[in-house]
Amino acid sequence: MPVTETSKTVDKKAADDSQPAIVIQDVTKSFGSQRVLDGVTFHVRRGETLAVLGRSGTGKSVLLRIIVGLQEPDSGAALILGTNMAEADPAALGAARTQMGFLFQHAALYDSLTVEDNVAFPLVHHRPDMSASEKKDRVRALLHEVGLDGHLDKMPSDISGGMQKRVGLARALVLDPVILLLDEPTAGLDPISSGEIDELVLKLQKQHQLASIVVTHDMISAKTIATRIALMDKGKVVIEGSFDDLQRSEEKFVSQFLHRDL
Q1: CATH topology (fold) of 20-99+179-262
Q2: pLDDT digit string (tens) for 60-96?
């Protein structure tokens, strides 16, 4: 797919659902002599979840920063709903970012805000058109979706790590994005809490028909929630496909990775 011109605006309702929401085209990125991304290419449509796996230092987190426009690739392009994130003007970049929800590895909640106010934070800053009652209704509906109705007034320090991830998911969805990016969503959680987060992500994915990318070291989680898996090594995508495709692969690295993590 050729690189398109930078979009001036991003209109989710006008977006063609038949086209990929995320296009990563031949992206390279180096830091000094170290090349961390080396020709990475893939796409994700609405309703799909791509899990990106690999050893530490293979460029997974750098890839996320390129997708949200926090870093520029050395070559290639990250297209978000048609917007080239490296070439977009500030207005187009901001518009594209409002269509992306991000769940940080450690939830990244504001310690001084309640659960309800943490989820409301993006609405306060990006939706001046909404009334206070509309914002409250939106926030409480999402907290209901993630099973936290009775915890609105609690502080992040008063809830468990799994509950903090649920708050982070609600906050990531509060602007009704097209795209959901998840950075190690089960990191630091016990197996039961990890399974609950996986089931919640699956439920929200179906309800909201999101184009999702999850960066994870958790093969069990990836197998559970992903439509496809992209396994990276030395900055390249070694294989992209279903979990069964990975199991059938004769690539030595793929076999080693699977046997290590399962």
Answers
A1: Rossmann fold (3.40.50)
A2: 889 999 999 999 999 999 999 999 999 999 999 999 9
